Amino acid sequence: MVLKKYLQILEAKEKPKFKKNNLEKLEEKSFEIISKCELCERKCKVNRLKGEKGYCKAPCGLSISSIFPHYGEEYFFIPSLTIFFMGCTFSCVFCQNWEISQWYEHGHELSPKELAKAIDLYAQECKNINFVGGEPTPYLPWIIQTLKHVKAFLPVIWNSNFYMSEKTMEILKEIADVYLSDWKYGNNACAERLSDVKNYIEIIERNHEIAFRNGEVVIRHLVLPNHVECCTKPVLEKIASFFGDKVIVNIMPQYRPEYKAKNFKDIARYPSQKELEEAWKYAEKLGLNWIR
Q1: Residue 74 — φ and ψ, nearest 5°?
Q2: Domain definitions of the chain by residue range
């Protein structure tokens, strides 16, 4: 059964990972990583402990856009306690949270204890703790500190672009009950042109395989206009090859040309109904466990 362990945590038959593992040790490892930051595969090597900022521009500490029970996530996750972090390790020209990811907003600075208090405040009405953004990866050390103070026994969802380093993946396996990934592209050229990211395919494939070995996985794929052949189909083929029907795949129709998308002719429109149906039919053909 897909998400079996997640459901067991909700039914109080199992503890979430962060309640079972040594967070002190994970905290120490994560702070070592940010002294020459390698949390993501950009590996900027800046000393975040001294306030130096890398590509993501994340500070030394927590910077949060919002925290609230979200009813727009996948049906089996809602209500989901979503914590939106500022900044991102990508610069997607079509980002639909661009105010957050590209720092057009000012984040709220909270201490780990304050964030933990907010989580516990909402815990009664939510099914999970959903770390998202932007991108949560730059905040891993302070997320661990937060979890040390959380009293609620909720599963943790790591909602990410999946460009984490192997060092980060090694830590995440101890705290992430469910990996909710965003598998955008089927080739490196599209990834570099539209998100300013290199070696996308190699890193995304590696991290999905690691996640699958260490937790439960739900994969999101946003259908881009004019990218069914170059991105959607290759992504779905990879998922089928690696995981078969053992992960849930959300093939998402809600792309809209936000942020700088109007400057890129291929993605300057909404996906057509024909493109969406082609994507969904292909998932069906591949035997994927998919939703929309």
Answers
A1: -55, 145
A2: 4-291
pTM of the predicted structure, to 2 decimals: 0.97
CA distance 226 to 224: 6
Low-confidence ranges of the chain (pLDDT < 50): none
User: Which homologous superfamily is 4-291 in?
Assistant: Aldolase class I (3.20.20.70)
Q: Mapped to the 3 state alphabet, what secondary structure does the chain carry? A: CCCHHHHHHHCCCCCCHHHCCCHHHHHHHHHHHHCCCCCECCCCCCCHHHCCCCCCCCCCCEEEEEEEEECCCCCCCCCEEEEEECCCCCCCCCCCCHHHHCCCCCCEEECHHHHHHHHHHHHHHCCCEEEECCCCHHHHHHHHHHHHHCCCCCCEEEEECCCECHHHHHHHCCCCCEEEEECCCCCHHHHHHHHCCCCHHHHHHHHHHHHHHHCEEEEEEECCCCCHHHHHHHHHHHHHHHHCCCCEEEEECCCCCCCCHHHCHHHCCCCCHHHHHHHHHHHHHHCCEEEC
Q: Residue 215: is the preceding peptide bond cis (ω within 30°)?
A: no
Cis peptide before 79 (omega within 30 of 0): yes
Crossing angle of helices 233-243 and 200-214, in 10° steps, is: 30
- C-alpha distances out from residue 119 to 23, 72, 98, 111, 156, Å: 17, 18, 25, 12, 11
Instruction: State the CB neighbour count (10 A cutoff) for residue 285.
Output: 10
